[in-house]
Specification:
The chain is an alpha+beta fold. It has 19 helices and 14 strands. It has a five-stranded antiparallel β-sheet, covered by helices on one side. A four-stranded mixed β-sheet has the order 3-9-8-7. About 5% of the residues have low confidence.
Length: about 525
């Protein structure tokens, strides 16, 4: 035992442990990939048994060093090739590794489900263990031959093998978890196994491939994957800083875009084949309908909109003037389809209250003063800077009525009803006395100047229109773009759209025809 006192012994032991661990990395990768096929409660057991067999096999082979050395003597020798027992073992192991890695790669490249679900068909425990043992035999032989070539003391070899196996046992679970959590790493490891399998076959057939080349290629690939994982980690870290609502919205919008592209590809493939397939109808049933996409987009973008883009503008408000006589008020109520009216004194900015047309007509018949009757139901006034999400709570408190939108100077900007919010989400619902804001023509759209920009963008399937936060309507956008109020016949180009002014007054834009270039 005096040789333990020699520094060269410890240097040889340390070197041999490092080499044994390096030579066992491919074994660990294979064990990690195979153990994934077992139920979670059996994976640790499979790793322990597999690496335990590796340790027993290596210690057994070390105790038969004289026999192991004879494995390099040719048993098949002709003018084409010479094969020893070692060569045959390497050849069979290499072919098995190529076959297994190819099958695993095929499953992942075909995007087959590898998630842990109740319906997953797990592999048999002993079938997996046997596969691990078969590869252990190949890798053990390679490791033992390396040990024999480096150290002369049998005890040193056995200690090195035991220490290397213990290190691999400690690292196996962490390595397995890391590989299984990162699918790109799984593909990279399977590529390594393909390379190692090819090198084993080449070595068995006496085609020399320097190990340094293999390790350099593997090291470079690992370095690139480390950069990839760092980039992915930083991306996820950056994403985590975004509000949860924004991340959810972006994910759903990406899903809708992906499904839209998939639907187009399926339709194109169907036209190319000039026949109906059973795949397209089944996929269409999983797609979002156009109305659903519109509503989902409306819900997800509601928080980013301004109150001005949702409200009914001041110019479209029908209001009751208390300074008019009762006959004029009665005629106005009967001729207008609205059921709710703001009651004002002389001008819209002097709001007294909100009344229902039916109740006000009854009050007029009973000769009740309109001013006093309207004052019983004071209006709910909100600033034009209010968050649309907070608007929903205010509308609930209004109990079926509407709220008045005012600016910082107390000037009424418009009003918002529950229907306005619904239209912001689901699209326009014209009243009986209204024409639609957007009319689809053959190659163009005829649009009112007061049309909400968000609704117009969704209909035109573009994000090119909303450039200024202060612009809530199409007319406001065109005036801001032109620098002044355009005249009829004028054409304003914004990105891929041409806006032809059809009708305009000296105060506002009434009608625009939109043509896409």
């Amino acid at each position: 035992m005096d040789f333990f006192l020699e520094p060269s012994t410890w240097a040889g032991l340390l070197t041999l442990v490092v080499l044994e661990v390096v030579l066992g990395i491919d074994n660990l990768i294979f064990v990690a990939i195979l153990s994934e096929k077992l139920p979670p409660n059996q994976r640790d057991k499979a790793r322990l048994i597999g690496l335990g067999f590796a340790l027993i096999m290596r210690l057994g082979l070390l105790s038969l060093i004289s026999w192991v050395v004879t494995l390099t003597s040719p048993i098949i020798n002709n003018r084409f090739f010479a094969l020893s027992v070692r060569d045959l073992i390497l050849l069979i192991g290499g072919l098995f590794l190529l076959f297994k890695a190819t099958i695993e790669l095929h499953e992942r490249l075909e995007n087959e489900d590898h998630e842990n679900t109740e319906n997953k068909n797990y592999a048999g425990f002993w079938a997996v263990v046997i596969q691990i043992v078969v590869l252990d035999a190949v890798f053990s032989l390679d490791a033992i031959i390396t040990a024999v070539g480096m150290v002369n003391q049998l005890l040193i070899m056995m200690i090195a093998v035991i220490l290397a196996t213990i290190l691999m046992l400690l690292a196996s679970k962490a390595l397995t978890n890391f590989i299984n959590l990162h699918q790109t790493v799984v593909v990279l490891c399977l590529s390594f196994l393909l390379m190692i399998g090819f090198s084993l076959v080449a070595e068995a057939l006496k085609f020399s491939i320097p190990k340094g080349y293999l390790y350099a290629a593997i090291g470079f690939s690992i370095l690139i994957e480390i950069f990839n994982q760092i980039a992915r980690h930083n991306f996820m870290k950056n994403q985590s800083r975004k509000p949860m609502r924004q991340r959810a919205a972006e994910a759903i919008l990406r899903l809708m875009i992906r499904e839209k592209n998939q639907n187009k590809n399926n339709q194109k493939a169907q036209l190319d084949n000039n026949e109906k397939t059973s795949i397209v109808p089944s996929l269409e049933t999983e797609m979002f309908k156009d109305e659903e996409k519109y509503m989902i987009n409306g819900v997800l973008t509601l928080a980013g909109r301004s109150i001005k883009s949702i409200m009914t503008p001041r110019s479209n408000i029908s209001w009751v003037n208390t300074e008019k006589n009762t006959n004029e008020i009665r005629t106005q109520l009967l001729d207008t389809p609205h059921s709710l009216f703001p009651v004002c004194k002389g001008e819209l900015d002097e709001i007294i209250g909100i009344v229902r047309a039916k109740e006000l007509l009854v009050a007029i018949e009973k000769n009740i003063d309109v001013y006093k009757f309207a004052a019983q139901i004071p209006p709910i006034i909100i600033p034009d800077t209010l968050d649309p999400i907070n608007l929903l709570g205010v509308l609930r408190r209004a109990q079926g009525s509407f709220v008045i939108v005012s600016n910082e100077f107390g000037v009424v900007q418009g009003l918002i009803t529950p229907l306005d919010v619904l239209e912001a989400i689901a699209g326009e619902f014209p009243d009986a006395d209204e024409t639609p804001d957007i009319i689809k023509e053959q190659n163009s759209w005829l649009v009112k100047g007061e049309t909400d920009l968000h609704s117009l963008q969704q209909l035109l399937n573009t994000k090119e229109l909303i450039q200024e936060d202060d612009c809530a309507s199409l007319g406001g956008l065109l005036i801001a773009q032109n620098g002044q109020l355009p005249i009829p016949g004028e054409i304003i180009n914004i990105n891929s759209f041409a806006f032809h002014i059809v009708k305009a007054t000296e105060y506002r834009i009434d009608l625009v025809r939109i043509i896409k270039h």
